[in-house]
Amino acid sequence: MFQQKNSIRVQLLFLTLVLYLVWPSELLAADPSIRIEMERATSEEVRVAITQFELGKNSSDSKGLGLEARKILEADLELSELFMKITPEVFESLERKEMGSKKVDLWAWHQIGVQWLIKTEYSVMPGGKLSFVFRLYDTVGERFLLGKRYTVGEPLLRKVIHRYADELVLQLTGKRGVAETQIAFLSEDNTNKEIFTVDFDGFNTKQMTHDRTL
């Protein structure tokens, strides 16, 4: 998951160590009860459809942040081993029909094999701010389950998607997911050793020590 670079040899020291970094006030505080070892509360995966992230009016996304965010969410849910992603080809016709509309035909989504439906609207605002509105639907019970809104700076894109993925796991199992956890590891090259952290999915590596004394 995490690739070695140059002569640096990465050794994972604590595979079950959960580290918490301080979140900016614009995000919710992390739940201290989160654990990497999570008991599965369901016997089979929930079939989920994640539609295209719909860009708000009067907003432009030249960097493709919506597409990136969708891929992160899909990967997080796959890593949780609790969800089965429905391929877009299965629902593209229905998705196209509802694009730009607040009306959702949950019965129609259920008929094509979807159990959970995730629809997302987002905006790219001045100053590099991003706004996401997530809506989760249960097509089996034909009901709206959960709505979440986040406003963050672009550098926190991955972190906020991880947080939402954990909210989905919480909704399903009653326990938060592990997408926003971090792993500590020791990197050494020749004589120097330093501690780094990396996100659970292998991205966002950060050096935590700079003292060259390890």
Automatic annotation (TrEMBL):
Annotated source species: marine metagenome
Coiled-coil regions in this chain? none
Q: What's a single GO BP term from this record?
A: protein transport
Q: What is this protein called?
A: TolB N-terminal domain-containing protein
InterPro entries, sorted: TolB_N (IPR007195)
Which segments constitute the TolB N-terminal domain? 35-142
List cellular component terms (GO): periplasmic space
